[in-house]
């Protein structure tokens, strides 16, 4: 009974806080470029704009992967991304772990878009994805399942408070599809490219600056330029009038999109060139010197000698008696056989029909491999301990919410 009273009191407190928050936090979910770049909550905690952009891409990629694992539609994934964007325009990255908040955003988006997922299943899938680098995560989730479940529920309350219970999200997909139908666009590839652009812009701050129909109009225009397709008119109206947008504001949207697209293209080209250079330097072609080849030919032309069937390559039979022959090859020479080019050094060589094998080198590689396995196992065990400590610490401290009007932090 006491527990029930506490729960009721907690609900009233959250409801009261939500009412006050809705008055203090206006339903302004679109921000200027200056506000996003210079005055976000993360900026006051020392996180610069580039780092925040990187974190934005990280949690969007995580949400996309989580949505695929949960088998939810793209609309649900897009809603989770928007929840996350809005949350970090009210709260700082420095005080809220992005993987935890992103997981909570997906959990709430599944409910909002009427594609709910069972909490038990959700906790397991999200935890495995967060710790996918750790092979013991699937086993460890059994030990801390209750704590992780409580963390998701606490995070959901925090998210609802920050969003002021405003879960009404509009996406550019609807405007894009409606305009394509009205314009009677039959070029399927054009529509696909525009749709992909909409998905790309959801991972940037554009969806925080401009309304969905502007994002849809800019995506269609940029797709038409890339595909070199002229957009049709409908009933004497130009294509952009089907989106009900202002030409001046649309021009600003298109300029930002073009700049972002060109930057991403140049970045991908630089990465491709770097990868090609790495491949060239990783596999150098070793060729034998002319001196080595001459010495090999000289050693093979030894008269009245036959190779022993049981002896090694370094011994020959002369007049019925095995005689050891000293090699004239230096350590820099290469032995050419049917297998390929083999490096010959003066110490500890075993010669067989396959080629030259360096025993010391093999022992060294085995030793290094065992050492790497030991170090990797130690890192995994260290990561396990860190992960458990992190979860326990978050549950002990709660998820801190920076209140808007009291001059202190409050735990939810």
From TrEMBL:
One GO term of the biological process aspect: cell division
Keywords, ordered alphabetically: Cell cycle, Cell division, Cyclin
Disordered as annotated region, ranges: 291-323
Pfam families documented for this protein: Cyclin_N
InterPro entries: Cyclin-like_dom, Cyclin-like_sf, Cyclin/Ssn8, Cyclin_N
Record family assignment: Belongs to the cyclin family. Cyclin T subfamily.
UniProt name for this protein: Cyclin
Species of provenance: Helianthus annuus
Organism phylogeny: Eukaryota, Viridiplantae, Streptophyta, Embryophyta, Tracheophyta
């Amino acid at each position: 009974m006491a527990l029930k009273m506490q729960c009721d009191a907690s609900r009233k407190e959250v409801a009261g806080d939500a009412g006050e928050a809705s008055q203090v936090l206006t339903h302004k979910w679109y921000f200027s470029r200056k506000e996003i770049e210079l005055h976000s909550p993360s900026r006051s905690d020392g996180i610069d704009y580039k780092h925040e952009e990187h974190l934005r891409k990280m949690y969007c990629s995580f949400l996309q992967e989580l949505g695929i694992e949960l088998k939810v539609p793209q609309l649900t994934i897009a809603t989770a991304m928007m929840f996350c964007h809005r949350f970090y325009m009210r709260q700082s990255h420095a005080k809220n772990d992005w993987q935890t908040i992103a997981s909570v955003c997906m959990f709430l988006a599944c409910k909002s878009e009427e594609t709910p997922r069972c909490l038990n299943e959700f906790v397991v899938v999200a935890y495995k994805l967060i710790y996918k680098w750790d092979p013991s995560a699937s086993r460890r989730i059994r030990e801390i399942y209750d704590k992780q479940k409580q963390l998701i529920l606490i995070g959901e309350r925090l998210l609802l408070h920050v969003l002021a219970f405003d879960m009404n999200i509009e996406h550019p997909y609807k405007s894009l599809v409606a305009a394509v139908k009205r314009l009677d666009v039959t070029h399927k590839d054009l529509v696909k490219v525009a749709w992909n652009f909409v998905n790309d812009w959801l991972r940037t701050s554009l969806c925080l600056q401009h309304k969905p129909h502007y994002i849809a109009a800019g995506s269609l225009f940029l797709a038409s330029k890339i595909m070199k397709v002229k957009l049709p008119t409908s009933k004497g109206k130009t294509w952009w009038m089907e989106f009900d947008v202002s030409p001046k504001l649309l021009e600003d949207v298109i300029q930002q999109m073009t700049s972002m697209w060109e930057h991403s293209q140049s970045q991908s080209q630089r990465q491709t060139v770097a990868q090609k250079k790495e491949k060239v330097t990783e596999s150098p072609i070793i060729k034998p010197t002319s001196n080595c080849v001459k010495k090999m030919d000289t050693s093979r032309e030894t008269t009245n000698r036959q190779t022993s069937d049981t002896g090694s390559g370094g011994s020959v039979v002369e007049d019925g008696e095995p005689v050891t022959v000293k090699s004239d090859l230096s350590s820099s020479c290469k032995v050419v056989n049917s297998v390929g080019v083999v490096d010959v050094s003066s110490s500890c060589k075993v010669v067989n029909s396959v080629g030259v094998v360096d025993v010391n080198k093999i022992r060294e590689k085995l030793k290094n491999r065992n050492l790497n396995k030991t170090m990797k196992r130690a890192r995994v065990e260290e990561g396990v301990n860190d992960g458990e400590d992190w979860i326990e610490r978050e549950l002990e401290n709660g998820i801190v919410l920076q209140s808007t009007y009291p001059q202190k932090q409050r735990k939810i």
